[in-house]
Amino acid sequence: MNQNNLTPPQDIKLERAVLGALMIDRQAMYDISEFMHVDVFYEVKHKNIYNAVKQLFIANEPIDLLTISNLLKKQDKLNIIGGDLYLIELTQTVSSTAHIEFHARILLQKYIQRELINKSTQIIKECYKENCDALEMLDKSYNNINEIANNSIQTQEVLISEIVETQIEKGKKIFEGKIKSGLPTPIRKLTQKTGGWRTDELIIIAARPGMGKTAFALKNALGIAKANIPVAMFSLEMSKEQLTNRILSMEAKIDNSKFNIYGLSPEDIEQLEPTKNLLSYMPFYIDDTPSLSIEHLQIKAKRLKNKHKIQLVVVDYLQLMTCSNKNGNREQEISKISRGLKQLAKSIDVSVIALSQLSRSVETRGGSKRPLLSDLRESGAIEQDADLVMFLYRPEYYQISEWDQDYNNEPTENECEYIVAKNRNGGLIRNRMHFEGRYTLFSDLETNDDFENFCKDFKIDNSEPF
User: Do 195 and 55 share a domain, yes or no?
Assistant: First the structure.
């Protein structure tokens, strides 16, 4: 069968019926205006007529034969559509508007089919070219499908009474300890203050190099995975082997340098055995694809959600990501990336932790090097999209030996401060935690309780599966 001779999906008879219904009853526009747009119509003259109807509707003007005819005449399109005679014929094709929404949704489906055919044809042509970049085409395919979905399928409004009971029941379960409000953080006090990392949220963890961003993210991911909650970590900076070395060092309390410089003694290998057994069953997935685009990450994360039911996505780190469409400057690209991460959290119902670099302005500031929101690189979009922004600050790194008066000038050795500088669903927080540089390991300052035991008490609400 020659596909070039196939007629694109369409239904001219239904197009005429929908337009006729709109012309005899203005109220019918309320039933379809939210999802119906000009391109849903296949016939060019029908596009022009619907466009006129929509303009009159928006302007709150009457919609009838006379008003539509006058508007089309002003636009020099009346003769193109067949004159007043064709408009009269349209009104005679229907007797009521009872089924207009049903008819309009059939036309919407025909439009989606046409768009899928058009976009797929473009992709096929590109794929036949010798210089075709397969991964770029994969990103483009995803974007095309996403664009069709965004243009065609609108979220329906929900009456608040339908949500109230669900939210009250969820609050009751949290109070009774049956579920938790979010995934646990590595620090008990931080979890208690924030409620943990919530699904649908974008969490930004930012710091200057050397503060321990990756180590803190790993501690998060590991504890959650040990509670048998699936986690995915996308590492754009470190290889999967380097991350595994970090994990083994943290878990077995073996100096990180032994994995890369000095080697492992028989005693070290014996010490690693329990950790090796522990990691063998954990639902912890690592992807170390370099220069990963936001579009490609979304595809990968959605596949992991479908296949493994991941609840947490960690990205290390945001500034190393790219966009498949690089129109605009770097700040605009970062804006697309941060917005894409937030959309990912909402679309597949996961918590997304994205690590972020801070600008060099921290280093040049006198006195305390404590980070500020303004220190976020390309901060406007990141700060806006994030539900929570947290900084890590280790004064010991800057040879500052004592904390300020907030912590009674106590020694800074082996300590790190976490600063929640933005929290859309709670208050701002600032406190300290313990940091062991040899193992790149963060832990509670006040207690030696095992983080993993703390995690095991966590149950997450999976009442809305992906």
Answer: no
